[in-house]
Write a structure and sequence with these properties.
Elements (H helix, E strand, L loop, with lengths): L1 H6 L10 H4 L6 H11 L8 E2 L12 E6 L8 E8 L12 E5 L3 E4 L7 E10 L2 E2 L6 E4 L6 E2 L5 E2 L4 E2 L2 E2 L14
Antiparallel strand pairs: 1-2, 2-5, 3-4, 3-6, 6-7, 6-8, 9-12, 10-11
InterPro entries: E3_ligase_FN3/SPRY, FN3_dom, FN3_sf, Ig-like_fold
Pfam family, one: fn3
Protein name: FSD2 protein
């Protein structure tokens, strides 16, 4: 019987119904759902650290901050301006830097000057709210010793100096 069956020509063509041939499937809802799953939220506000000891020179400051969340961050936007007691403090030059790390050393600053810093985090979804503002202070300039006014005797010495700083210095340390 098998031999007889194999001698016959068999039509293996399958017929399809017309409704399946031109059917268009709308994936727009699925696409929206997939896009919403892959979207990362904008980061939360970073937390700026207070000034650390030995984090300043006369012309530079090292500013550090962190995040309390597991947000995805591409970079940070660090802003700063000098603090002024005058009413025009809002008109002071505001500087902005893009930083990849959670710290930055700012250079070319004025000695013995207060600077206000704040930072925001950025990713593909947007920018975070700014951190609280923190005030950092650069170190004072070294004083100028007035060598012509130095006097000494067997048990004492008189050393005079003057400050090069505009803002008052709290104290001086004299080393022998």
């Amino acid at each position: 019987r098998l031999e007889e069956f194999l001698k016959k020509e068999v039509d293996l063509e399958l017929s399809t119904r017309p409704e399946f041939e031109e059917r268009v499937i709308d994936f727009s809802e699925v696409e929206e759902l997939m896009n919403s799953i892959n979207t990362i939220p904008a980061p939360c506000a970073p937390v700026i650290n207070p000034q650390a000891p030995n984090a300043a020179t006369g012309t530079s400051l090292r500013v550090c901050w962190g995040l309390f969340s597991d947000d995805t961050v591409e970079c940070y936007q660090l802003c700063y301006k000098p603090v002024s007691n005058e009413r025009r403090s809002d008109e002071q030059a505001e500087h902005t830097l893009k930083v990849k790390e959670t710290y930055c050393t700012i250079t070319n600053l004025l000695p013995n000057t207060q600077y206000e810093f704040w930072v925001s985090a950025l990713n593909a979804s947007g920018i975070s709210p700014p951190s609280e503002r923190a005030v950092y202070v650069t170190a004072p300039s070294p004083p100028i010793i007035k060598s012509k006014k130095i006097r000494s005797c067997e048990n004492a010495a008189l050393v005079c100096w003057e400050s090069r700083d505009i803002n008052p210095v709290d104290s001086y340390m004299v080393e022998l």
